[in-house]
Amino acid sequence: MLETTPTLLSLTGKTILQVVPEMATGGVEQTTLEVASAIIAAGGKAIVFSQGGRLVNELEDLGARHIQGPAASKNPWTVFVTNPWRLIKLMEKERIDLVHARSRAPAWSAWIATRWTTTPFVTTYHGIYNAKSGLKRLYNSVMARGDRVIANSFFTQNHVIEEHKTAPPILTVIYRGVDIATFNPQAVKTSRRKSLAARWGISLKSVRPRLILPARLTPWKGQQVLLSALFILHQKGIEFECLMVGDAQGRYEYRDDLNVQTQRLGLSECVHFVGHCNDMAAAFALCDIAITPSIEPEAFGRTAAEAQAMGLPVIASDLGAARETIDPGVTGLLTPAGDAHALASAIEQLIALTPLERKRMGAAGQARIQQKFTTLALQRATVLVYQQLLQARN
After folding, report:
1. pLDDT per residue over 325-335, tens digit each?
2. Cβ atoms < 10 Å from Cβ of 27
3. Which residue range or ranges hold the Glycosyl transferase family domain (predicted)?
4. What is residue 153's DSSP assignment?
5. CA torsion, points 281, 283, 285, 288, in degrees to nearest 10?
6. Tens digits of per-residue pLDDT, 199-245?
C-alpha cells in the first residue's frame, strides 16, 4: 500500500499519461505506480501506456488505466512514426492534459506527440546513459527535452547539466522514494517471513550473519564482485549466508555463469540464488546486512534506500547516488567499485559488530530515509511539477 494522503495538491479534472517501455519490475515501473497513485489521490485520472508486464494488475488495482502497445520497441519506424500516431489518437480520445515519459525510445514518441498537440511534456532522467557517439548523445537528449525535467538525484542532475546543458528551473531533483509504510520492520509479520523462508528453503533465523544483494541479475550490479569477496571471507573461515535476490530477466547465460562461479569457489552451501521476490520488505527482514556492489554508478539506488528503511546497514560502491543515500560509518559503508578485497573487508567489519551495534547503525539509516527519501515526498513533488505546468499552460 502506497503512503499517499489527501494532502496532495489537486489535479481534479486532469488526465495524466505516463509512458514507459513496460510494467515489469524495477525502479522505473515502481515510480510509475507511485505517481499513478498520487495522481488519483489528487483527484486526477491516471493512464499508463506500456507494453505490459507483471505490474499491470497492480496498476489497475490502484484505479489507473493501462493502454497496451509496443512502447518497448526500438524500431525507428515504430518509435518515430507509428507510436507517435498512437499517442496522438490516445491523447485526443482521452483528453490528456500532460504526458510524462520515463525512458528514451517511448520518450521520443511522446515528445513528437506532445509537440504536435502542444501538450505539456515531463521527463524523468532515471539512469546515466552511455554516450560514445554524437548519434547516441542525440538519442539520449530526449530525456532532457521535457518542459520540465526531473532528475532522481543530484548525481543525475549534475550529469544532465554537463551532458545536455539543461539547468534549473527546467531541471529539478526529485529523489526516488521509499514507501516507509511498506518498508517498516514493525509492519512485517512473522508469517510473511516464514512463508518466504519456506519458499527459499532457508531457516527463518540464520545462526550466521545473513547478507542480501537485492538486484536483477546483470553484470553491472556486481554479483560477481560479491562472490569474489565472499570467497575471500570463506578462505578466512568467516561464516555467513548470502541471498542473491533478483530476476535474470532473460540473462540466462549470466545466471548460469554465476552458478558456475559459486560452485567453483565452494560457496554453494552458503550462497542462494532465489530469483524474483514480490515481498522485498520480508526479504530484508530475514537479513542482517545489505550489499549493493554496483560497478557502474547508480542514478539513485532504490534498494539501498529500502534496505536502510528496514533497519539494515548497507555496504555500497563509492560512486553515483550512493554517496547521497548512505552516510559512511553511520548508516553503512562505501567501498571502491569492483574491489573485491575492499568489499570483503567492509563485510568483515560489519559482521564483527555486535548485533546491538548493527542495530544502531540500521536505526540511523532508517531515520535518514524517513527524513529525506520517502514515497510521499516524491509524490508531492511530482504532483507539484504537474500543477505548475498545467497552471502555466492555462
Report:
1. 999 999 999 99
2. 18
3. 208-366
4. S
5. -130
6. 999 998 888 999 999 999 999 999 999 999 999 999 999 999 999 99
Residue 352 DSSP symbol: T
- 185-188 long-range contacts, CB within 8 A, separation 24+: 185/285, 185/310, 185/311, 185/366, 187/281, 188/281, 188/282, 188/285, 188/310
57 burial (CB, 10 Å; 0-12 / 13-18 / 19+) is: exposed
The DSSP secondary-structure symbol of 296 reads S
What would the grid cell of residue 155 be?
Answer: 548525481
Q: What is the pLDDT of residues 234-283, one digit of tens each?
A: 999 999 999 999 998 889 999 999 999 999 999 999 999 999 998 999 99
> How far apart (Å, rounded) are the C-alpha atoms in residues 228 and 218?
16
Locate cell 505490474: which residue?
55
Q: Please name the residue that has the C-alpha cell 559503508.
A: 333
pTM for the model? 0.86
Rounded mean pLDDT of 138-165? 95
Rounded Cα distance between 111 and 98, Å, is 11
Q: What is the CATH number of domain 15-177+374-393?
A: 3.40.50.2000
Q: Whose grid coordinates read 512485517?
A: 188
Classify domain 185-372 at the CATH topology level. Answer: Rossmann fold (3.40.50)
284 vs 155: CA distance, rounded Å: 26
Burial of 319 (0-12, 13-18, 19+ CB in 10 A): middle
Chain region(s) in the chain for CATH 3.40.50.2000: 15-177+374-393, 185-372
Phi, psi of 216 (to 5 degrees): -60, 155
